[in-house]
Design brief:
Elements lengths: L26 H14 L4 E4 L5 E4 L2 H7 L6 E2 L26 H11 L2 H22 L4 E3 H6 L2 H10 L6 H13 L3 H24 L5 H6 L2 E2 L2 E2 L2 H32 L1 H9 L4 H11 L4 E6 L3 E3 L2 E3 L4 E5 H5 L33 H18 L4 E2 L6 E3 L5 E4 L1 E3 L4
Length: 402
């Protein structure tokens, strides 16, 4: 439990809320509704003394101003809440500010070019069909383990040319990083991943290919080559991003469609709605919370914050804000939701956004064509989780078998 001694002198008492993003009341039942309750009962900006203390911004308009403002709201060593320990280097490129940021971002952009995404999409479609057909006759599946835990992860592993048999280990490590354990546990997980990646990086130095790890090794930061530590850091971040975010989003969408037959049947009957529906579903079920650190004193929304203060940008708050969206909890496939913050904004906007859209589209097309009617298994319930990245832990689905 946080105490008054954890609150800096410049923080007004009326702006303090004791909110623990790793232990959010109601998160296991519905993490987005849990965050919405926090938003509705809090000021536009509040301070929580948890994990060293940080500000939390709860409104779309303020979040939209912060995201592109890297000069005052820096990403350096700040992206996680709490940030990783001093022994862990910055997570590259997401904890690197411009102008150096562009050097580290370039290989990711190349690996996710339109042509590459088309190729990955073909692989994703084949795998989606294979997975669905593998369990369709059973009439049930646990969606996270049987589908969402495979599709995005296998595509990512092909991008970096890592063994598919390592998927289980890497998924478990990602879970530790994003949604649980102590700060020491998360730091230890990063070091374990560094150890895993170190061997692969050394192999790619000896036998380079066209995979993403080989491309990262070839980065030049201005006139100098990328360091080994920087390679480890960038590969680790790409791994965590590639293995978790799409799978979590996919599971939230599957849960919504299982519980909302009218929406499900509309998409099954009118698949041309799927691209627009994806934007609306990503808005409604946004998952990341992203940190920043102030480089100077700032006044924002009438609140004075000091240089060195940390700020959390919970994308869910921006996308569930009544000031930006009419009836934000309602899913409306006719809503023009393209301005949502689900993939971030500014220099650090998610480089994998278009690949994520393609994978989500393939999931919906192939699943609804084969299993148009499905629901939560009677007597059971979905289990969701809060953390730096919200997720679905368990999603038992059933459907009629002819």
């Amino acid at each position: 439990m946080a105490t008054a001694s954890d609150i800096p002198a410049h923080v007004p008492p009326e702006l303090v809320r004791d909110v623990d993003l790793y232990n959010l009341p109601g998160a296991a039942e519905d993490v987005h509704l849990a965050w919405k309750k926090v938003q509705d009962s809090s000021p536009d900006i509040f301070f929580t003394p948890r994990y060293g203390g940080y500000w939390v911004v709860t409104r779309h308009e303020l979040l939209s101003r912060i995201f592109p403002d890297h000069e005052r709201f820096s990403s350096h060593k700040a992206i996680g809440i709490p940030p990783l320990g001093p022994e862990v280097p910055p997570q590259i490129p997401i904890e690197i500010d411009p102008p150096q940021h562009r050097y580290f971002r370039m290989p990711i952009n190349l690996a996710l070019s339109p042509k590459k995404i088309q190729d990955y999409g073909e692989d994703a479609r084949r795998l989606a069909i294979e997975l669905i057909e593998g369990f369709r006759a059973r009439g049930e599946c646990e969606f996270v383990a049987d589908f969402a835990g495979h599709l995005p992860m296998d595509i990512f592993l092909s991008m970096v040319d890592l063994p598919r048999e390592d998927r289980g280990y890497l998924v478990a490590q990602t879970e530790k990083m994003t949604r649980g354990g102590s700060e020491a546990d998360r730091n230890r997980t990063v070091q374990e991943i560094f150890g895993y990646l170190d061997g692969w990086i050394r192999k790619r130095r000896e036998q380079p290919g066209e995979d993403l790890i080989s491309q990262i090794i070839r980065i030049k930061v201005g006139d100098r080559p990328i360091s080994h530590q920087e390679i480890l850091s960038e590969c680790a971040l790409v791994l965590f991003g590639g293995l978790d975010t799409v799978a979590s989003t996919m599971a939230f969408i599957a849960r919504f469609l299982a519980e909302n037959p009218q929406h499900r049947r509309e998409l099954a009957a009118r698949p041309e709605l799927i691209p627009q529906a994806i934007e609306e579903l990503v808005r409604r079920f946004s998952i990341p919370s992203i940190g920043r650190v102030l480089t100077q004193d700032v006044e924002l929304g009438g609140v004075r914050m000091k240089a060195g203060d940390k700020v959390m940008l919970n994308i869910c708050f921006g996308n569930l804000d009544e000031g930006a969206w009419a009836e934000p909890l309602k899913v409306d496939f006719c809503r023009h939701a393209q301005e949502h913050l689900g993939f971030g904004k500014g220099n650090h906007k998610c480089p994998g956004a278009n690949l994520a859209r393609r994978e989500l589209k393939i999931f919906l097309e192939e699943w609804l064509a084969r299993i148009p009617e499905f629901s939560i298994k009677p007597g059971e319930r979905a289990v969701t989780m809060s953390g730096n990245v919200s997720g679905v832990k368990y999603l038992p689905l059933v459907w009629p078998v002819n």
